[in-house]
User: Which sequence fits this backbone?
């Protein structure tokens, strides 16, 4: 297979706040179990940021897994995303600790409220507690808001979230 030897995939609703070049040193399927520090039952891979090593065998395995996951989720009345297919394909990912990235590489914006009290920061010298990437998960995205809705959202962020205002402003400046 020609082309890239390794890729770092990021969801489009993420803001990189620190250099993440070091991710290319991690093996394929390295990712975060984002939010795990708040809910220890969240042990599955979050595909918001993920190291990928292109491989024909893995591609065929994922394509074989796709209809199985679609069928199962359809029977349960759930929607299916890439993350669900990958988690079914990599069912042993929770036990493969060498593939687990520090949560600061996929810090949910709404969890910045708790980040400081748990030792996370943007300038932390401890790599496991440093915030590198902020993920704007959920239905409300900063770029969907304008006027009064944006102002109300910002007020909520300011009152609930120690780091949120700075991150929100940085993101809005990038998309102007």
Assistant:
């Amino acid at each position: 297979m020609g082309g890239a030897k390794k890729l770092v995939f990021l969801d489009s609703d993420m803001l990189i706040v620190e250099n993440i070049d070091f991710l290319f040193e991690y093996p394929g399927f390295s990712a975060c179990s984002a939010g795990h520090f708040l809910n220890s039952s969240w042990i599955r891979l979050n595909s918001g940021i993920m190291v990928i090593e292109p491989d024909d065998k893995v591609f065929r395995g994922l394509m074989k897994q796709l209809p199985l996951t679609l069928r199962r989720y359809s029977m349960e009345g759930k929607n299916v995303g890439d993350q669900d297919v990958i988690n079914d394909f990599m069912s042993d990912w929770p036990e493969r600790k060498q593939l687990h990235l520090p949560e600061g590489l996929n810090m949910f914006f709404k969890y910045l409220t708790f980040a400081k009290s748990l030792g996370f920061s943007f300038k932390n010298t401890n790599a496991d507690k440093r915030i590198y990437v902020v993920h704007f998960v959920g239905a409300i995205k900063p770029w969907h808001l304008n006027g009064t809705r944006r102002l109300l959202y910002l007020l909520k962020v300011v009152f609930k979230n120690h780091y949120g205002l700075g991150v929100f402003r940085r993101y809005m400046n990038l998309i102007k």
Observations:
- The two ends are 39 Å apart (CA to CA).
- The mean pLDDT is 86.
